[in-house]
Amino acid sequence: MSLPPLNMLRPPKTTIVPDFLPVLSRGKHFTPRAGACFMEFASQLAGERFSDHPSCTHPAVASLARLVNDCMSDSGRGSLLVLIPSVVGLTGDTTVSTKRRVDPDAALTVSQHIELLIGVRAAASALSIASEQRQRALAAGLLRCRAEVDRTTTGLTQMQTHSLVDLIDTALADAPGATRWARQQLEALWGGSVKRMRRRAPLNFESITLLAVVSIAEACVQNADERLRLLLKAAIVDTRTLLQPTLTMAVVEADTRVKADSQYARVS
């Protein structure tokens, strides 16, 4: 009896995805076999220990990524996969200035500027579609962020400062009722003393971002998943721009595409 040719003994080629590759899903996972959230997938790409808090990404960006991952629908979460490589290596000086806690007039660190940018981007994206109560809270947060930008621009270029101010002012103009209410409340609480407000009620950028992401996810709009994806995409570009002042043409083009996508989502 003759043996079959060697090429017939080879196993057939297959396109089936191996079982051990993680699938994007909500929440924290103990092993890749159980699935992975956005940042857990990023930790695998970076060659780090499987974790949703890897060191390869700035904490503020990672926090937003986890929120967006968990708030998106199961059917829309897969659209985040293409963004995962862009957060690997997106780090900077994450040291929080101790002087900042003592002196409210101290300049923001680079890390705090990133938190400010992400908080503003998130609140501006959510303000026009959030419920009335959340609109008021987001408007108050944006007014607080506006005061921070007016107070200190150290670490931001003139173009970045103008872009940030324009983003805040445009968002507030789209919700005049909530903005008017927020101004009245801040005035009643602090009597126009911005320094006293900063000293007694420190601004929490992470809380603003959390409220904004939840507001988008629960808004009565058909494209909530797409809005969340565009928010994360824009925040990644913002952070890379701040960490790398001398941008390559590829990043500039990406920023242009983000703005075009944002305008599309705004109209949709």
Question: What does this entry look like structurally?
Answer:
This protein is mainly alpha-helical and 268 residues long. It has one domain (32-267). It contains 13 helices and no strands. The chain has helices at 6-9, 38-45, 59-71, 84-87, 98-102, 110-126, 132-151, 158-173, 176-190, 194-200, 205-217, 224-243, 249-267. α3 packs parallel to α11, α6 (110-126) runs antiparallel to α7 (132-151) and α6 packs antiparallel against α12. The longest helix is centred in the middle third of the chain and has 20 residues, at 132-151. The radius of gyration is 22 Å and the shape is globular. The chain starts with 5 loop residues before the first helix and ends with a helix. The model is unreliable at 3-19, 96-103 and 246-256 (pLDDT under 50).
